[in-house]
Amino acid sequence: MNKEIRRHQVVIVGGGAAGLELATYLGKKLGRKGLADITLLDATHTHIWKPLLHEVAAGTLDETEQVEYLAQAYRSGFLFRLGKMDGLDRENKQISVAPTLSEKTGEELIPRRDFQYDTLVMAVGSVSNTFNIKGVDKNCRFLDSVAEAFDFQQQLVETYIKSHVSRKTKLSIGIVGAGATGVELAAQLHEVTNTLAMYGLDAVKDVQITIIEAAPRLLPALPDRLAMATQRQLINLGIDLRLDCRVVEVTKEAIKTHDGELIPAELKVWAAGIKAPDWFKDLGGLEINNINQLVVQQNLKTSDENIFAIGDCAACPWPGHDANVPPRAQAAHQQATTLAKSIVNRVKGKEELVNYVYRDYGSLVSLGKYSTVGNLMGNLMGSVSVGGFIARVVYLALYKMHQIAIHGYYRTAMLTLSNLFRDSVYKRIKLH
Length: 432
Known about the structure:
There is one protein chain. The protein is α/β, with parallel strands linked by helices. It has two domains: 8-126 and 276-359, FAD/NAD(P)-binding domain (3-Layer(bba) Sandwich); 136-273, FAD/NAD(P)-binding domain (3-Layer(bba) Sandwich), CATH 3.50.50. Helix content is 33%, strand content 24%. It has nine helices and 26 strands. It has helices at 17-31, 53-58, 69-76, 136-139, 146-166, 180-198, 224-236, 329-347, 388-423, and strands at 8-13, 36-42, 46-47, 67-68, 79-82, 85-89, 94-97, 100-101, 108-110, 113-116, 119-122, 127-128, 171-176, 207-212, 240-242, 247-250, 254-257, 262-264, 267-270, 274-275, 294-295, 307-309, 314-315, 362-366, 372-378, 382-387. The strands form nine sheets. A five-stranded parallel beta sheet has the order 5-2-1-11-22. A four-stranded parallel beta sheet has the order 15-14-13-19. The chain has a three-stranded antiparallel beta sheet with strand order 6-7-10, with no helix packed on it. The chain is globular and about 70 Å long.
């Protein structure tokens, strides 16, 4: 009697841009053909491309953009398991997953489990880095996950309604961090303010949005000229910019700066830096850097030959630069594509691992309906500054690349057409 051959076990922890694209590719390439079991583990049920979370928080993104992990797994040939990893046993090649509890009752829905792996991929993304500043954890909102973005959006609408009814003081919103997330969120919130005023919540005209940044200018990833152009646009929108201003404490009522100034803020958002999760500090003795990222080689392998890391949680060398690959969506997409080739080789018995080479296609920042600016990098043209319609098209194209990696060309085209029709019928923002 022939024994059943044990299939290669690939476990991917984290369903962000990198993890979901990798699981989708491997599911179609290996899972459907019975060459390997591909398992994706995530603590949530749905996925939204992280660069769009500021639109979720503002209520301007259609909820249909969410990808259901279970449905995606069914279509693509991989397995989805709900849960949060909380331990690693490298000797026995298994991870432990904490019990899953009901959000409403606290009842245990899924007991603690262990998953065996032959190849483990860490793709958990990043979380906000508070730099241990007093009061940030307690008094600030973060946009690290879909759930946090939806929670912020609900609080935003409730605060607007409260401001409309009371008509006492100007509603103040403070955003700490003038990188892409902070700047894009500020522009989206300004758009929401105008839209709500159009819907009748006229008191929200008295809204003050303030961006606080420790550096002397905003958008460090963009050239000075584009950063200054963005700065002028934000000022024209009435957004208050506090540059070269370091936050030392956040209270319930205000944000305190290094010079003792208190900036009133009823809503406070922290977007001032990222790090890998703190539980990486005790992850089976794997090497990490000062912001908890797993240190990987050029082939995306950690110090363990069976464990890889991609996306924001990985510290990957950038040859020719005195820095690691920047934590961007384009890097996550490229790393998923590269690692997929290496894992296919492993499953087929080949020892060859593909080295990852970061290709910088530039940086783009969307100011919603007001503007889009950025610089594009190309082998033939070098660095080219773009703005307006062209920049907006390129910005949307980056998202479409992610959708194509997940859904394929046909489904992405249908989703795009569907959204065009929905935009002509449904309200501009989420109001509940």
